[in-house]
Known about the structure:
- The complex is a heterodimer.
- By secondary structure, chain A is mainly α.
- Chain A is built from 4 helices and 3 strands, in the order E-E-H-H-H-E-H.
- Chain A has helices spanning about 15-25, 30-40, 50-60, 85, and strands spanning about 10, 15, 80.
- In chain A, helix 1 runs parallel beside helix 3.
- The termini of chain A are far apart.
- Chain B is of the alpha/beta class.
- Chain B has a 6-stranded mixed sheet with strand order 8-2-1-12-19-18, with helices on both faces.
- In chain B, strand 9 and strand 10 form a beta hairpin.
- In chain B, helix 1 (about 15-25) runs parallel beside helix 5 and helix 1 crosses helix 8 (about 345-355).
- The longest helix of chain B is centred in the first third of the chain and has 21 residues, at about 55-75.
- The two termini of chain B are about 35 Å apart.
- Classes of the chains: A mainly alpha, B alpha/beta.
- At the A-B interface, helix 2, strand 3 and helix 4 of A face helix 5, helix 7 and strand 17 of B.
- Strand 3 of chain A pairs antiparallel with strand 17 (about 300-315) of chain B.
- Flavin-adenine dinucleotide binds near residues 34 and 35 of chain B.
- Chain B: InterPro entries: FAD-dep_OxRdtase, FAD/NAD-bd_sf.
- Chain B: Keywords: Oxidoreductase.
- Chain B: It comes from Thermococcus litoralis (strain ATCC 51850 / DSM 5473 / JCM 8560 / NS-C).
Amino acid sequence: MSEKGERIICRCNEVTLEEIEALIEQGVTDIEMIKRLLRIGMGPCQGRTCLPMVISIIARKTGKSPDEIKLPATRIPIRPVPAGVLVGDMNEE
Amino acid sequence: MKSKAEVVVIGGGSTGTSIAYHLAKLGADVVLVEKGYLGNGSTFRCATGIRQQFTDEANIKLQKYNVERWKKLSEELEYDVNFKQTGYLFLATTEEEVEAFKQNIKLHNKFGVPTRLITPEEAKEIVPLLNADEFLAGQWNPTDGKANPFKTVFAFARKAKELGAEIYEYTEVTDIIVENNEVKGVKTNRGTINADVVVNAANAWAPIINEMAGLDKEFIPIKPYKHQLVKTEPLKEGQIEPLVCPPAWNDSYVIQDGEDGGVLCGTGLEHGPTYDVTPTYDFLREVLKWATRIIPALKYVHILRQWAGFYAKTPDSNPAIGKINYIDGFYIAAGFSGHGFMMAPGVGEAMAELIVKGKTHVPLDWEWYDPHRFERGELRSTAFQIG
Lengths: 93, 387
Ligand SMILES: Cc1cc2nc3c(=O)[nH]c(=O)nc-3n(C[C@H](O)[C@H](O)[C@H](O)COP(=O)(O)OP(=O)(O)OC[C@H]3O[C@@H](n4cnc5c(N)ncnc54)[C@H](O)[C@@H]3O)c2cc1C
């Protein structure tokens, strides 16, 4: 719980349970749109922590089974890499 | 699902949702069908950039108008689409390019776009991390900008629904019904929708839709080319706010995401034609080689994500917008190359007005974008490409 008593679901982008539930209540139930409007799963952790929780929130709020909700695409690189490493220009380090 | 409407719009990207919104606003009974989720085509993969800096009259005029639309869009749609006028900064590496910049600036100024030539020192003031020593001059327009594609599509769709439009996601058009050269509706994987007007806003897939209507696939030769982006972890706001691009460096560009401050890096490397969107390693190396030369400090910044999408390209990189004369009631707005997101508000408005009123007040040069120009072998000057 944060100081304000909000429950953080996405730690990278500080998205709370309340924000996710409010969006679903407004009729946005597709994980792809929820992801993009709230930026869940788009931080450095690539959704590792938040996405399974978001799926269970959607399932609970919409009555869908969690299996029906597909995970959004995983993007490479799986772990953040400094750009200099990828261009082979970090020799001085 | 409705089985009848006045207009069916095919494709739920920035173009299709804008057309649907503007049609609903004019009181038309409109249905939009999208085969995946809204935005899943090119729109959600774009670099967010909005510019007026083209090299021809038609695109400059349309984009000048579009920036006026973007400025008021959040208010109009009652949803913040995060439009910001953070500018576009092109950088010259040779004297010839400086001369070309001067010509561009003259043309922009003629149509009221306040582009100006700036020194490398001024460029560095605008982009503090810039490797300004490598450049001779900048072509700078502070009134260009960026917006959030996710929120834009959502906002258009939301407002369209509020005005009575129906939007069906995960609904794929499988055939177009045409009788006696008149459009009668569309078949989808969820049933048939009868309509006297059908709009092809399927961009990279537009030739497949045209073929369903009985047209030759090459009639409007739009081809999908894979373009990619990488995005870094967030940087402090204001470091690389404008889109920064030295065209001579393989059309490479960097721009800070208007919302989270991560840097989007793109380059001219393309693959295709192909419908494959697998990210490639050659892109990663190419784009970062240039990005770290434009902004050396980027070397120390983490890359978080890489993805690919399509430039739906025509032979002159200008879209096909308008009526298809062979089939009554069949319209197209597709083939937007690297600049369809920025055009969405005005293109949607012009198309809706064309359909409902037969004419539009939007300064969109129908002749320039004429869908029939390709079969006449009549191309426009190539639209300036970058973001
Ligand atoms: C890497 C990259 C960077 C870019 N940067 C910029 C930029 O900075 N600024 C800018 O303005 N533009 C940019 N673009 C271009 C921009 O993304 C596109 O021009 C724009 O998104 C086109 O929007 P659209 O709605 O016409 O097409 P799309 O967003 O592709 O929408 C077409 C839709 O049609 C749907 N569809 C297809 N077939 C069917 C069918 N049979 N039935 C139902 N639906 C169907 C698709 O699923 C898709 O959602 C960039 C593109 C890429 C790839």
